[in-house]
Amino acid sequence: MCYYRRVEESFTEREIFVPARILNGNAIRDEIYAELKREIADLNAAGIRPGLAAVLVGENAASQIYVRNKIAACEQLGLGSWLKTPSATATTEELLDLIGQLNESDEVDGILVQLPLPDRVDTKTILAAVDPAKDVDGFHPMSLGQLVSGRLCLVACTPAGCMEILRRSGVPIEGADAVVVGRSDIVGKPMALLLMHANATVTICHSKTRDLPDVVRRASIVIAAIGRPAMIQPDWVRPGATVIDVGINRITDAAEAERIFANVPAKLAQFREKGSVLVGDVHPGVAEVAGAITPVPGGVGPLTIAMLMRNTVKAARLRREHGHATPGSVSGAAAAKP
């Protein structure tokens, strides 16, 4: 199955293949960074240097890479940054004390707690302890509540990045049928809310949804965020739909790589060379059906970091407007626009 259009030519009609337009997250990130640099320069001129503190517990290799990329983005944009690295044996109480110190610091405008935390730590308690005015990840219950009510807030970075991809790529959202596959607090739920606030008609699906392929097939916008490699198949997608692939999964099994990338020789070659390869939640064959699609990597990932940077700048501005807000004091004034 492939997406095609009919072309009239010399009184005859032929069908031609139209490959999906690739929605380049790196290019969109660069646009946003250019805008942020101007805003940061204005804040610097007023004596304000926005700053982000990252908390990385333990030595999880993937988390170290993610945090390193975020700190590098701060340096690229001229933001202040601090990396706090408690040991893997840190307790909930010790982390609460660290979060309290960061909440009290006027130099710190944004606090990022890199997930996952060790099993012994109460993750929800730690995330809820972050001052909502500094909640640049958008994970605090107050942040989500403000998003529900449509108020100005710090929005979760990945959903906000998906919205930027759609808007800056000229994808019509108002009135569109949108399906979000995945219901997590981090992506699925805030994604659905942002689409609803943009006047899309939104359906949230998950692994237990009945007739999931049929539900997805009705959508003109598909957001795949379920955390299962190549789950969204080509015959699930309406021809010409826009597909945003939030997933990033590392394939290390040869049989699985052969199955998923049977028609993508370059990816198979990469797997054979390195022993692993990345794939999203969307099967690569969907690119032959969709009208537009984000690549993995290079699609949503760059926008997640860009939105973290934007939230940090936004938090710096909002905190000054509210007189260096103390923990918990921003209830309602800072909510739904990413």
In short:
Helices cover 39% and strands 17% of the residues. The protein is of the alpha/beta class and 338 residues long.
Describe the fold and architecture:
The protein has two domains: 168 residues, 3-Layer(aba) Sandwich (Rossmann fold); 83 residues, Rossmann fold (3-Layer(aba) Sandwich), CATH 3.40.50. The chain contains eleven helices and 14 strands. A six-stranded parallel beta sheet has the order 3-14-11-10-8-9. A three-stranded parallel beta sheet has the order 5-4-6, with helices on both faces. A two-stranded antiparallel ribbon has the order 1-2. Helix 6 packs across helix 7. The N terminus and C terminus are likely disordered.
Unreliably modeled segments: 1-15, 325-338
Percent strand equals: 15-25%
Q: What sequence of helices (H) and strands (E) makes up the elements?
A: EEEHEHEHEHHEHEHEHEEEHHEEH
CATH-defined superfamily of the largest domain: NAD(P)-binding Rossmann-like Domain
Instruction: Characterize the biggest β-sheet.
Output: 6 strands, parallel
Shape: globular
Number of strands: 14
Nearest-integer average pLDDT: 91
Just name the CATH architecture of the largest domain: 3-Layer(aba) Sandwich
Number of helices: 11
